[in-house]
């Protein structure tokens, strides 16, 4: 039932011209040149007036391809719209359109770090989920040529928990959910959406978050551990080898599940 409500929400936003967003900052466009490929990066801010909330985003795509598939990238706590560029640029260079959403804004209440973490952080994740839906509707209006039956959600840490919450509560929204070390929201024990998780070398998930080996086999959930710390997955301190490993895992999984 929830995925039907989601489809209705997206349709209302799109066909109403996303009337809930009265303001959109003028895009700032710039290029980056990596491995002989020019990647276009458009940064802008949507405003969801129904919540009085700005949503900064960055859109990555290349001039030499016409992307047909959308990846929504959700940074870890405190991440900005241009963080995780090593993942976004690589995806764009492989033919995807990538939209990175900045979920945390100056003035936001800090997320809780003690107590019942799941219960206390759930409202923050819900806010992120609403932003993801809002941005998806805006992108659909801007780029109607994309295949919206295929959406891949990628998230690191707190952003991964938002993505996994969608996998649980709105399984029809994304075809693929990839998390980098989400630690709080349990994996759905279900075959849809397709789930792949890249785990760090240093920070374990909370009890009950990860499926058992038997559940992974039953529901075709893929989990891989890499030689990178939880914090380094953001790309600030990772080595080139670690970035290459993570990028290869993500691209191979996406391409094998097209």
What does this entry show, briefly?
With 258 residues, the protein is of the alpha/beta class. Helices cover 33% and strands 24% of the residues. One of its GO terms (molecular function) is aminopeptidase activity.
Could you characterize the architecture of this molecule?
This protein is an alpha/beta fold. The chain has one domain: Alpha/Beta hydrolase fold, catalytic domain (Rossmann fold). It has six helices and nine strands. A hairpin with a 2-residue loop joins strand 1 and strand 2. Helix 1 packs across helix 3, helix 2 crosses helix 6 and helix 3 crosses helix 4. The two termini are 26 Å apart.
Key terms:
33% helix; 258 residues; Rossmann fold; 9-stranded mixed sheet; 6 helices; alpha/beta; hydrolase
Secondary-structure map:
Elements: H1 2-15, E1 28-34, E2 37-48, E3 53-62, E4 69-74, H2 85-93, E5 96-101, H3 117-142, E6 151-156, H4 158-169, E7 176-180, E8 194-199, H5 213-219, E9 222-225, H6 240-256
Parallel strand pairs: 4-5, 4-6, 6-7, 7-8, 8-9
Antiparallel strand pairs: 1-2, 2-3, 3-5
Helix pairs in contact: 1-3, 2-6, 3-4
Structural class: alpha/beta
Query: Number of DSSP helices?
Result: 6
Terminal residue distance: 26 Å
From the spread of the alpha carbons, the general shape counts as: globular
GO molecular function: aminopeptidase activity
Keywords: Aminopeptidase, Hydrolase, Protease, Signal
Signal peptide: 1-25
Protein name: Serine aminopeptidase, S33
């Amino acid at each position: 039932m929830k995925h039907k409500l989601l489809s209705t929400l997206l349709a209302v936003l799109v066909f109403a011209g996303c009337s809930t967003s009265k303001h959109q900052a003028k895009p700032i466009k710039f290029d980056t040149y990596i491995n002989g490929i020019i990647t276009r990066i458009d940064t802008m801010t949507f405003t969801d007036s129904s919540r009085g909330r700005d949503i900064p985003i960055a859109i990555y795509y290349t001039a030499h391809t016409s992307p047909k598939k959308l990846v929504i990238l959700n940074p870890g706590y405190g991440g900005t719209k241009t963080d995780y560029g090593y993942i976004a640029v690589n995806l764009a260079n492989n033919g995807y359109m990538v939209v990175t959403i900045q979920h945390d804004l100056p003035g936001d209440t800090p997320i809780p770090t003690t107590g019942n973490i799941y219960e206390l952080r759930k409202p923050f994740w819900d806010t992120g989920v609403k932003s993801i839906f809002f941005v998806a509707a805006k992108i659909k209006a801007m780029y109607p040529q994309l295949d919206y039956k295929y959406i891949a959600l990628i998230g690191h840490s707190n952003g991964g928990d938002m993505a996994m919450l969608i996998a649980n509560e709105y399984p029809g929204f994304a075809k693929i959910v990839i998390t980098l070390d989400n630690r709080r929201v349990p994996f759905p024990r279900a075959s849809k959406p397709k789930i792949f998780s890249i785990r760090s070398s240093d920070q374990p998930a909370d009890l009950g978050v990860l499926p058992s080996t038997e559940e992974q086999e039953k529901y075709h959930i893929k989990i891989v551990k890499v030689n990178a710390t939880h914090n380094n997955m953001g790309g600030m301190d990772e080595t080139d080898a670690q970035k290459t490993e993570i990028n290869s895992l993500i691209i191979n999984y996406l391409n094998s599940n097209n």
